[in-house]
């Protein structure tokens, strides 16, 4: 076991997969000589050379399309979005080309591609650098979308994403790169389609992902002291969603709260609530509640910014309120 | 009013061809023309649907470039992709069946007119949005260089030809990819089919520099202007660009001055192009011109050319019968091909 920062866990994943498979390569802005804005590709340029760790001009739509063309012809590219918000510039390539092309081509081509980088609301980065594009991209057919949340799952998920034959959008969170955890010395993979039960419990299912997992766990401590026993599930897989794991939990607790960092309108929770109603309506003892970010561009001002995203206190109150509902 | 660009006098010598090559090129051009005429007929008879963009008039570009490539080279196309697919070797049956939405189509009936794909023929596909096919083609070209240099695969000397129209050359992806292709010396041909019109937008009204080939110079790659109605002129330019690309000397921008003999798509009323302009370009029909050349050079006689035309009529009729008789996709496979495992 070795204590490892999350950014370094990602770096290890890329390094190991590049060592294992010559077709794996990285491209993006400042991934090479500079080592990546969050040092996820530090020293890999020196180790693997400039074609395998390719510094690109600032041309998100074209270098994303280029990675798709390289994937169609047999490479396994990893695109780093220096900030995932920049991928709005590559929306067409991610949707029309990465997501839909395999289907449109009648299965002629597969696109083993990873697009990864930091998303989420950071610390006073302003609206454009504080996006949660997972909500925007969730409707695109053919994409897999995952969000890592710990050094352990970051490494195992990224290795799985690189080996997957489909385009995977891999969301990291800008405020989680310095999380530390002991990682196994031996190789491991984490599946892309499984939610993680972070804390088993009986009273209420709290579904969350990415950084909000840590806000939820911060709320769980006072809730435990008050005698509540929530079950916490980290979705990990945002597309497709692991409804098996969610269903098992809902059949046990009959109550659901979803905590997300994306905006409420058209968010991840909106989709999950609709699907829970389709699949598990008879199991519910209370309407599903969602705690989401406000439907506004993330403000720069620190106080306004903290009001924009969900805070642990709100999660605590929501659980108490839901548990007061009598069936 | 904008000044219309005058056609330059082309000095480039035509490609030297054998009789065999001449007939191969002629057959490809005839196939392109007859295939598209049949598409128009089927569309107007209500047998074919969607947006259908025909290639009539531009055959010298597809045949001139693609027939100068090797079978294992890559071709990237646009929404006007039927004839590129045919030149790249996709059987007429597969292309016609795709237009009929059949399971036997090259994209299994999921793609349609604007989305012809064939991995088997290294056809990277038809891309319906302006410019989006160029980065994908750039990726295929990058892949060749990557395989050769980092994986030690000496056989990875494939060249990628990316086709697009004059309208695309005002789009950022065009410039971004010119930059990256030149920067990394990728084995790629940027082939502009300048047919003067982006639906109803005259090229001269859309761009500050109508001479597209000149746009290459600022990125440090060769830009060449060629008569896109002369298949041997196109072939000569393509051969030189392909040789450079294969030798690792980088990309070339080729501007082919050409014309489409039909509207933008079969849904386009085509009201803006003047009768004079159309007549002028019709008189430069690349197929008639090549026929005259073949006969003048004693590479073929009327009988031989007539036999080819009859053969291709048969190929197109066969493709049509095949498409009509082919099964529709199975509704139980509606969800197939979303993911690689499907």
Automatic annotation (TrEMBL), chain A:
Taxonomic superkingdom: Bacteria
InterPro entries listed in its UniProt record: THDP-binding (IPR029061), Transketo_C/PFOR_II (IPR009014), Transketolase-like_Pyr-bd (IPR005475), Transketolase_C (IPR033248)
A Gene Ontology molecular function term of the record: oxidoreductase activity
NCBIfam families attached to this UniProt entry: PRK09212.1
Protein name: Alpha-ketoacid dehydrogenase subunit beta
Cofactor requirements of the protein: thiamine diphosphate
Coiled coil residues, start to end: none
Annotated SMART domains: Transket_pyr
Residue span, Transketolase-like pyrimidine-binding domain: 4-179
Organism: Vasconcelosia minhoensis LEGE 07310
Alphabetical list of Pfam families matching this protein: Transket_pyr (PF02779), Transketolase_C (PF02780)
PANTHER family: PYRUVATE DEHYDROGENASE E1 COMPONENT BETA SUBUNIT, PYRUVATE DEHYDROGENASE E1 COMPONENT SUBUNIT BETA
Keywords associated with the record: Oxidoreductase, Thiamine pyrophosphate
From TrEMBL, chain B:
InterPro entries attached to this UniProt entry: DH_E1, PDH_E1_Alpha_Subunit, Pyrv_DH_E1_asu_subgrp-y, THDP-binding
Keywords, comma-separated and alphabetical: Oxidoreductase, Pyruvate, Thiamine pyrophosphate
Protein name as annotated: Pyruvate dehydrogenase E1 component subunit alpha
Cofactor(s) of this protein: thiamine diphosphate
Native organism: Vasconcelosia minhoensis LEGE 07310
Protein function: The pyruvate dehydrogenase complex catalyzes the overall conversion of pyruvate to acetyl-CoA and CO(2).
GO biological process, one term: pyruvate decarboxylation to acetyl-CoA
SUPFAM superfamilies on file: Thiamin diphosphate-binding fold (THDP-binding) (SSF52518)
Key word Chaperone present: no
Enzyme Commission number: 1.2.4.1
Subunit note: Heterodimer of an alpha and a beta chain.
